[in-house]
Amino acid sequence: MSLVVERAGFFTSVQDLGRTSFREFGVSSGGALDCFGLRVGNLLIGNDEKAAGLEITLGGLQLRFEDERIVAWCGGEFDVRVGSTSLPAGHACLVGSGENLKFGACKNGCRSWLSISGGVHVEPVLKSRSTDLRSNFGGFKGRSLRDGDVLPLGLRPGSPAPAKVISSWTAPHGWVSPAKREPVLRFVRGVDWSRFNAASLQRLTSEAFTVSPDSDRMGARLEGPELKRVDVSDLISEVVAPGTIQVPPGGKPILLLGDCQTIGGYPKIAHVITVDFGVAAQLRADDHVRFSEISLADAHRLLLERERQLELFRVGLSLRTS
Amino acid sequence: MEIVPLGDSALIVRVRNRFDDKPEETLDKVLLVFRQLQAASIPGVIELVPAYTSVAVFFDPVTVAKATETSDKLFDWLATRIRAAVADVAGQGHTKRSVSRTVEIPVSYDPEFAVDLDRVAQTAELSPGEVIDLHSAAEYRVACIGFVPGFPFLAGLPKKLATPRRDVPRKEIPPGSVGIGGAQTGIYPLRSPGGWNLIGRTPLRLFDPERSPPLLLRAGQRVRFRKITRDEFESLSGNP
Question: What is the DSSP letter of A234?
């Protein structure tokens, strides 16, 4: 009923779909930076899609299972092995008692999400098992994992044990492997769009930005063309959200991610759309990223269409196992 | 009132465009809208977050689409529902604010805690003692909770005490630290970085995720600081 972290790797934490309804208290939503990827991973192994898994940043993780579990992962281009067998993204796999699971080098992208049948069963804090890494609560002892940690696992659901060790079925490639080279993130205009000068608005959509090493789960800091405002008046702090691109006075934009603070006083030039969060979560230092504008109605259409596809996928999975 | 999108899964209801000219009136209006929207239970709305002049509304577009039976114009549909909820005078009656008591926060202005007291005093051209007297005599109101969990941004700082934030923020500020940042005062609930001028420390825990409710202060609440001695601080924080 537990999982031994033999090597915690570069940066690994327990995450689920995040905390809702505590922003009023200043608590970040947090959760997997690619919630959709974690949901897909959970569905692939018969978990509730809200089950907590592990978010692995840049690899180096080695786990030892103490009982038989089914696992699946989604995310960047990682070399993942169960024992000596390679496990591609988006395939369910049976891991035997005493077996190892390793996340090796990450060729492209930055993060991945591992789902384990039964879920990582740490105590929920403020209705979520996510680790709040900024305020140090929730998840496993409110911190990222360390070598030797032993994680509690939940009861295994009556999940679809793959006939073979690795399932033949999988999910659409874009869902399980969202990392792209030179990605283009789609955005809708931010509330302070018109506070920026025309040249800056032009640069946002025509030039590439470089992800700064000073980026984390709170936000990806972007180097490159500076975005300048027309007016310089101080703004009243308002709520910000994951996906918000805010621009501090220096003109270097910050793309806010899951652990971002709840309010901010910098102008919000744009917001990356929800369906592109999975791509954004793969940005790592020195990556190039571009932005393109879409309408709010299109952002909603894309999101609803993806949910429809996920619903079909869910039905398909249940037919397979019935 | 203005309603603007905050990405595809949230929007901001801006009640006023200014805060400092009428902080009391603005907060009352924002909190009224907050309670009206709570009472309205609009389908798909997940959470509401008041801050200074606005209320943010987070929603699940999938649930909203089911309620509207269209994938188009989710934002317009929500904006219409929000305007209706705010215009509903009947709703204002039963959501009327209960008169909340003023929360008293004990603060020790001991020199060990008040590391920036001299800087604040110099800026205000007052003695450190006068700064403490002014700070602990005023009544404040929580304009917003944010930055870190449970951090109250308090409006109502005597104008004389306004002090610019430090040029270089501190990497680590002890929990309970009371600070002044620009025209506001606030309390760091957790160990965190920060650029405000520290003038004291409270032994109270402002945020505890294991406690229900997890925080001591909410937007709109009235707050006073009560000056305590270092000994009282130690005994209130449970130290020997």
Answer: P
